[in-house]
C-alpha cells in the first residue's frame, strides 16, 4: 500500500511539473522605460563607441536586443516625451508639439491604460511635460540630489513597488543634458577619448565639451546598473521588460533640434528574458511612437484607438520581418522658431524645411556652450568648412535627400541630383500622405524667439 501510494505521489509530481509556469510571453511583465536626456544613439559602447564608459548599457545590450534603426518623432525634449507617452506624433497631441507646452488633459496615454489594468505606475526623475502628466501615475518621485543626474530616486521607486502588482516605471535622467561640470565621474574622459563628427570643428574647445558630455553618459550608465542590480537582487529580472532610449540627440550644433540622424536617431535597447534572444540585433525601422502600443501589447491591455504607432513586439521574435516601411519626424519651435518634416526609409532620409529663411541654430543651452562659441570665432576667422556652417547658413534648402548608408553623417544633399529624382518623388509623396493622415499643420503665424541666436541669452518679452 505504501509503495503504491509513493508511486502515485511520484506520478502526480511528474504531471504537475510538466505544467510549466507561464512563459515570459504569456505572463504580464513588469516594464521599465529608461530615458536619457540628450544622448546620441551611438554614444555608448553598445553602439560601437570605443571610449565612452558604459558597462551597464553594454551588458544590457548583450542580454537583449539592440535596435540599429530606431528613431524619435522629434528632437526636442517635451514634444518627444509627449509623443512617447501618448503614442501620437507631436503635432497630433493637441498642443504639445512645441518645447515646454503642457500635455492637454484630453490626451490618452499608455500609462493610465496600464494603471487601469492593475499596473502600479511610477515616474522617477525628469517630469517633462509637467502639468496633466503627473496624475497619470500612481506615484511621482523627484530627481534626487544634483550629483545623481536626475537618477537619485530610481532604485527607491523600484523598491517601493507593491509586491502584489505588476509595475511600470518611467525612469528619466537629466543626463547628459547641459550644463556640464568637471569631475562628474571619478575617472573623467579626456580629450583623446573624443570622436569629433565632421560637422563639428576638431578643436580643443569642442573636444573638452564632448568629454564632459561623455562623463554624464557614464554617470547615467551607473544608475542604470543600480536598477538592473536591484532587479536581480529581488529576483524580478526574469519577468521585467526593460527598454532604454534617449529623448533626442546630443546638445551640440547640427544635432539636437534637427531631424538628421544626429538629432532623431536614438539608442534603443530591449531586454526581456524568455522573449528576446540575448545579444541579438534588429535592423528594421522602429519609432518611439511605437512604444505605447507595444507596452500595451506586452501587458495584454487593449491599445487606445488614438495611438498612431504600431506594435513592435513581433520584431522581438522575428527581427528580420519589418513592421513599418517609413519613419516620420518633425521639428517645431524650440527656443527658436522652425518648421521641418522628414520621411525616413532604411536607405534615405528626406527632409522638408518650411522656414528656409532661418538658420539651423542649436538650442539656447548649446548656443551658450563651449562648442558653439568656439564655432562662432572660427566662423569670423573663415575657418569653418561647408559641413560646419549649418548653424549659420541661410537660406537653408527647402528639400534635402541623403543616402544614409553611404553618407551616414548626411553631408551630401542629393535633392537636386537627377539620379535620385525618383527617390525624392517617392519620399516626398509619402510625406504628403503622412501629413494628411495625421492632420499635420503649419502654424498660421511665427512664434518669436525667446533667446539670442549668438549669445543664448534670454530676450526681453515683447509687450503687446
Task: Explain the layout of strands and helices.
Blueprint: H1 2-18, E1 30-36, H2 55-63, E2 65-67, E3 70-71, H3 77-86, H4 110-116, E4 120-125, E5 139-141, H5 154-159, E6 167-172, H6 204-233, E7 240-246, H7 261-264, E8 269-271, E9 280-282, E10 286-287, H8 291-298, H9 313-317, E11 327-331, E12 340-344, E13 348-353, H10 364-368, H11 370-380, E14 399-403, H12 421-438
Helix pairs in contact: 4-8, 6-11
How does the helix and strand content classify structurally? Answer: alpha/beta
Instruction: Give the CA-based shape.
Output: globular
Tally of separate helices: 12
Radius of gyration: 23 Å
Distance between the termini: 97 Å
Q: What integer is the average pLDDT?
A: 94
Beta strand count: 14
The portion of residues forming beta strands comes to: 5-15%
Sequence of secondary-structure elements: HEHEEHHEEHEHEHEEEHHEEEHHEH
Write up this protein.
By secondary structure, the chain is an alpha/beta fold. It has twelve helices and 14 strands. The chain has helices at 2-18, 55-63, 77-86, 110-116, 154-159, 204-233, 261-264, 291-298, 313-317, 364-368, 370-380, 421-438, and strands at 30-36, 65-67, 70-71, 120-125, 139-141, 167-172, 240-246, 269-271, 280-282, 286-287, 327-331, 340-344, 348-353, 399-403. The strands form three sheets. It has an eight-stranded mixed beta sheet, with helices on both faces. The chain has a four-stranded antiparallel beta sheet with strand order 11-12-13-14. Strand 11 (327-331) and strand 12 form a beta hairpin. The longest helix has 30 residues, at 204-233. The protein starts with a helix and ends in a 26-residue tail after the last helix.
Amino acid at each position: 500500500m505504501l509503495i503504491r501510494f509513493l508511486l502515485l505521489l511520484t506520478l502526480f509530481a511528474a504531471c504537475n511539473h510538466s505544467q510549466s509556469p507561464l512563459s515570459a510571453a504569456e505572463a504580464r511583465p513588469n516594464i521599465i522605460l529608461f530615458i536619457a536626456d540628450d544622448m546620441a544613439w551611438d554614444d555608448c559602447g553598445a553602439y560601437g563607441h570605443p571610449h565612452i564608459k558604459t558597462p551597464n548599457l553594454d551588458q544590457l545590450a548583450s542580454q537583449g536586443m539592440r535596435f540599429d534603426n530606431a528613431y524619435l518623432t522629434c528632437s526636442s525634449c517635451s514634444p518627444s516625451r509627449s509623443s512617447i507617452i501618448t503614442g501620437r506624433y507631436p503635432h497630433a497631441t493637441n498642443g504639445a508639439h512645441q518645447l515646454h507646452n503642457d500635455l492637454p488633459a484630453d490626451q490618452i496615454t499608455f500609462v493610465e491604460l496600464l494603471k487601469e489594468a492593475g499596473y502600479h505606475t511610477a515616474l522617477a526623475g525628469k517630469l517633462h511635460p509637467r502639468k496633466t502628466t503627473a496624475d497619470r501615475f500612481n506615484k511621482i518621485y523627484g530627481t534626487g540630489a544634483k550629483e545623481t543626474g536626475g537618477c537619485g530616486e530610481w532604485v527607491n521607486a523600484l523598491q517601493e513597488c507593491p509586491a502584489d502588482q505588476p509595475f511600470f516605471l518611467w525612469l528619466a535622467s537629466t543626463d547628459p543634458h547641459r550644463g556640464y561640470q568637471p569631475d562628474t565621474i571619478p575617472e573623467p574622459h579626456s580629450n583623446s577619448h573624443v570622436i569629433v563628427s565632421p560637422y563639428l570643428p576638431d578643436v580643443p574647445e569642442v573636444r573638452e565639451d564632448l568629454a564632459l558630455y561623455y562623463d554624464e553618459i557614464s554617470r547615467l550608465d551607473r544608475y542604470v546598473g543600480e536598477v538592473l542590480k536591484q532587479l536581480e537582487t529581488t529576483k524580478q529580472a526574469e519577468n521585467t521588460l526593460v527598454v532604454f532610449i534617449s529623448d533626442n540627440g546630443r546638445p551640440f550644433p547640427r544635432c539636437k533640434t534637427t531631424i538628421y540622424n544626429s538629432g532623431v536617431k536614438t539608442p534603443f535597447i530591449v531586454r526581456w528574458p524568455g522573449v528576446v534572444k540575448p545579444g541579438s540585433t534588429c535592423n528594421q525601422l522602429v519609432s518611439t511612437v511605437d512604444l505605447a502600443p507595444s507596452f500595451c501589447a506586452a501587458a495584454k491591455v487593449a491599445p487606445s484607438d488614438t495611438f498612431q504607432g504600431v506594435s513592435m513586439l513581433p520584431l522581438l521574435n522575428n527581427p528580420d520581418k519589418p513592421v513599418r516601411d517609413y519613419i516620420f519626424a518633425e521639428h517645431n519651435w524650440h527656443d527658436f522658431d522652425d518648421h521641418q518634416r522628414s520621411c525616413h526609409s532604411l536607405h534615405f532620409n528626406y527632409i522638408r524645411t518650411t522656414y528656409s529663411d532661418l538658420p539651423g541654430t542649436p538650442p539656447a543651452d548649446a548656443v551658450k556652450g563651449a562648442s558653439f562659441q568656439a564655432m562662432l570665432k572660427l566662423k569670423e576667422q573663415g575657418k569653418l568648412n561647408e559641413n560646419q556652417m549649418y548653424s549659420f547658413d541661410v537660406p537653408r534648402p527647402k528639400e534635402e535627400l541623403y543616402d544614409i548608408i553611404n553618407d551616414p553623417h548626411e553631408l551630401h544633399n542629393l535633392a537636386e541630383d537627377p539620379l535620385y529624382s525618383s527617390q525624392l518623388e517617392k519620399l516626398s509623396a509619402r510625406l504628403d500622405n503622412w501629413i494628411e493622415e495625421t492632420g499635420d499643420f503649419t502654424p498660421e503665424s511665427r512664434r518669436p524667439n525667446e533667446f539670442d541666436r549668438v549669445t543664448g541669452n534670454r530676450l526681453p518679452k515683447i509687450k503687446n
